[in-house]
Design brief:
The chain is an alpha+beta fold. It is about 35% helix and about 35% strand. An eight-stranded mixed sheet has the order 1-2-3-4-5-6-8-7, with helices on both faces. Helix 5 links the parallel strand 5 and strand 6 (about 150-155).
């Protein structure tokens, strides 16, 4: 591919991705209803202590900070640098689904790679939702975007997140020491990767 950056910019969008358990919808700054900043914040509020254990930005987040983050995620998509999908649990009683969490992609176009990160509110854990969400984004990244590499960085204390990576076929590459400052302590992270040739 002669100019991958142009290809990525042309083809990247946080397209709606549908699975058996979840539907992923691109985050939009003007979204309303279940995808609104207010609903995302309400979900965070109900799981704040649970999420803050591994997400350093959660603890002090208010609705204004969240809206700034949403703007930055939307701008990333606009400039072809990645984006954010909202994860909705499919529900027969709710055609919109129940908002459960987020999955983000940060692209490195020079290397045709991207880093994924994700979170789920506490009531939605342990149901296979994130595993399916990661698989949906992985397929989109390799088939639609023609990326070569995806990676995940997971706190060594976050066994459930590491299990998601492994269930999705990601391979452990080692430890990034003191990778992130979480709640006043430097935390090592495990690094996982998946290559297009591992799948196809």
């Amino acid at each position: 591919m002669d100019n991958y950056e142009d290809f990525f910019t042309e083809h990247f969008e946080t397209a709606t991705l549908k699975g058996e358990r979840v539907t992923l919808r691109g985050l939009r700054e003007t979204s309303s209803g279940p995808a609104s900043a207010e609903n995302i914040f309400a979900t965070i509020e109900k799981s704040r202590d649970f999420l803050a254990e591994h997400l350093p930005w959660i603890h002090e987040t208010d609705i204004f900070d969240l809206k700034k983050r949403i703007r930055s995620w939307v701008l990333n998509e606009r400039f072809g640098q990645g984006g954010c999908w909202l994860i909705f649990k499919n529900s027969p009683d709710n055609p919109d689904g129940d908002f459960a969490g987020c999955i983000l992609m940060e692209a490195n176009l020079r290397n045709r790679s991207a880093t994924l990160s994700y979170w789920l509110a506490k009531p939605f854990t342990g149901q296979g939702l994130m595993t399916e969400a990661v698989k949906l984004v992985t397929r989109f990244a390799f088939e639609r975007l023609k990326l070569n590499r995806l990676e995940l960085l997971v706190s060594v204390h976050n066994g459930k997140s590491a299990a998601v990576a492994m269930r999705c076929g990601f391979i452990g590459e080692g430890i990034n020491r003191d990778f992130e400052l979480i709640n006043g302590k430097f935390v090592d992270h495990s690094r996982f990767s998946l290559l297009a040739r591992d799948v196809y």
